[in-house]
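Appendix C. Worked example: FAD-dependent oxidoreductase
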Amino acid sequence: MRIIIIGAVAAGTSAAAKARRNSESAEIVVYDKDSFISYSGCGMPYYIGGEVENADELTPRDPAFFKSKYNVDILIRHEVLSINPDQKVLKVKNLTTGEVFSDSYDKLVIATGAQAVVPPIKGADGRHIFTLRNINDMNRIKVYIDENRPKRAAIIGTGFIGLEVCENLKKLGLEATLLEKLPQVTPGLDSDMAVYVRDHIEKNGVPVLTAVSVVEITESGVILSDGKEIPADLVLISAGVRPNTVLAKAAGIELGVSGAIRVNTKMQTSQPEIYACGDCIEQFHTVTGKPVYRPLGSTANKTGRIAGDSMTGGDLEFRGILGTGIFKIFDMTVAQTGLSEHEALALGYQVQVCHNIKPNRPEYMGGREMVIKGIADRVSGRLLGAQIVGYEGVDKRIDVFVTAITFKAKVEDLFHLDLAYAPPFSTTKDPVMYTGMILDNAIHRGRPLITAQELDTLVQSGQKYTLIDARAAAQYEKNHIETAKSIPHAKVRAAAESLDKDAITVTYCNKGVTGNAAQNILINDGFQKVYNLSGGHKHYCKIHSEK
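Step 2, the predicted output written as structure tokens:
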């Protein structure tokens, strides 16, 4: 059997390696038009910033490695021009010599990846304008910085790569400005979590402009649609990627609703002898079962392995993705998995959210607060998603949420997880457990939450309500929500008699715990509609700091 793989890097090389592990007799050839066939794309921003000193650390494997270890022939600087599925023939061009030749296959894998999106901006082809998608892009940026010593950078887009490059350019001493077309940074997060990221970026000296459009790039800067010019002698366009499907489409291979190649769980395309994997394919969501496009290196490795297994008789099948992502911006860690609130609402779920502010470990052990947003289905109680902004320990918690969501956990299940505890690592009840408790209280135990946005709607609605600040009087005097009454927790029982039990009542404290305690007192005293403010006064103020 002759296997040809179009494209290397994460997906293609994983497919080749797994196919070889399953079959010693197969001929395996990989064509890649680039010079680098295996590299850590996620490490590129850190080489630009100098944290990774040697670029060779990002490119550990070359064609000779794959030939010696796997007996796989990888031909670099070879571009596949066309696929003929009926005859099982490819047309290939040697980019070094210009020679064009044909090759035949029994099984074919398309691992053509994705390419950077460059919006239709006037002047976007200047020598000081870059995208960052591969090692060649990285090297061009590094050379430009070393030779030209730019002073100011504009970064268009605030996804993972844009923010990571921003941090690393700051380390090099450049003044950087972030430009985002959407009304918030980090498009994958809900807006009530993105505010934390934006605040942190700005506190680290990076101006952030949201809801702006770039119409032109000149040698001296970036011009916005309102005529404002942002000075810049280096511009990074980080506006996302699109699947590279030109070959597949020309060969009549079916694309999915996202525009990426449609595959089944064994990575087969609409042509049974042709498989596809990596950033060029459409995945499906583990929660909803619906098609999505979430190109990540971890998924590329996984789907490549499945493709290599499937074509050689294996039984591996893809189980979907949650769109899990994590990145660092300065010293802050940002992570997400599953459905966001706005995605869940758009899909028709009756959504319950909570905002849980807890330290990653006790403060006496140097703990620092993280903000966890949990998203759940109010009907079934199933956990749908989680987003975390914090510092140490975010990666641990997001992976627990990933595991729970993957195995269809309900919010009440989180409390029963036997998580590791010792003061250097966690609080006695882990923040994951607290998140489950808060959501369980809201969904099943008659302790409803109200978000900052919902409270604003209530205040503006004209309905009768009572807003209770359950913190100490001194905290109330320092700062409070405008229409709130100061009734400290210790005085709630006595004050209950003078309050309207039939009116909507909202309690709050700093972060939610004491507000819940006051809520319990009122509910037990016969109050009919009592809500606790999700995330408390601290989260409410963060939301309103952006307005």
